[in-house]
Amino acid sequence: MRKLLNVLYVTQPDSYLAVDGETILVKVEKEIRFRIPIHNLEGIICFGWAGASPKLMSLCCERGVALSFLTSYGSFQGRVTGKISGNVLLRRAQYRWADDKDITLRMAKRFVQAKISNCRALILRGRRDHQDCIDDESMDKSANRMLYALKRLDNALTCDEVRGIEGESAHEYFSVFDQLVLSQKESFYLDGRHRRPPTDYLNSLLSFLYTLLSHDVTAALESVGLDPQVGFLHRERPGRQSLALDLMEEMRAHFADRLAISLVNRNQINGSGFLIKENGAVMMEDNTKKEILMAWQKRKTEEITHPYLDEKIPFGLVPYVQALLLARHVRGDLEDYPPFFWK
Fold this sequence. Notes:
By secondary structure, the chain is an alpha/beta fold. It has ten helices and twelve strands. The two termini are 22 Å apart.
């Protein structure tokens, strides 16, 4: 089992990353603010305009530590990684599968089935836990429509049909998602999903969390030898991590959406921690990012019982377990791919 290591998040824009032997240094105006041995890390994520020395990049490549750069909004910019890992035969099998319409359809159904089921579970849990605060009728309608979508999914004949069902279900889900927000509703509300750019606080929060999840899933796929860019559900596009987006679908509700709701309902973040740009785009202040990142890291250390393995694992290992199960299926060691279903 892979050991759950840490991810170093660098949020201060004038930071500079350097190396002293086996130790990573974070400097601000030439003053060392933080140091950590590289063997304690599995990834580094830099927000804004943080810089990094060539020696640091070389050490990260040598030790298999992914170094990612994101904008201050949380949008992915680029990644520095070492040599491609994994068996070339596994990647060749993956590419053949991606060109096979029947296999692509079957895999796309697996990812969407888990996504819809997990989103529906989140709605039903919210309805059960907060019956006196939400509109039961609208929750029930959306949950029933998503259940019907799952039945339609079984009979889908093309990937375009699967994508259509996924889109309809996502619309149903986000149409009632706002009701799960029980605190600070004057600041955190959702009128549909807006991503490029996010135009309200809750969309900005979700986009930020999805970016963090994307980093973890991409690193997990690379660690088992799969190509994150060659997927099944999401169409291939230069620079797009299609397989990472595929695998993310089954984890969004449990990893990101639940955490977003908890952060708001527990008043761990508030509207004063967001800024609205002249073009209407919403971005976070540094202190809000830090609060979210601490909550993200804490959530990853919590233990859950994996639904397929039936073993307790840290929550943060779920992307690696799912990537490993997917690789085993592509190699032929597993008859089918078992998606992550949240119980």
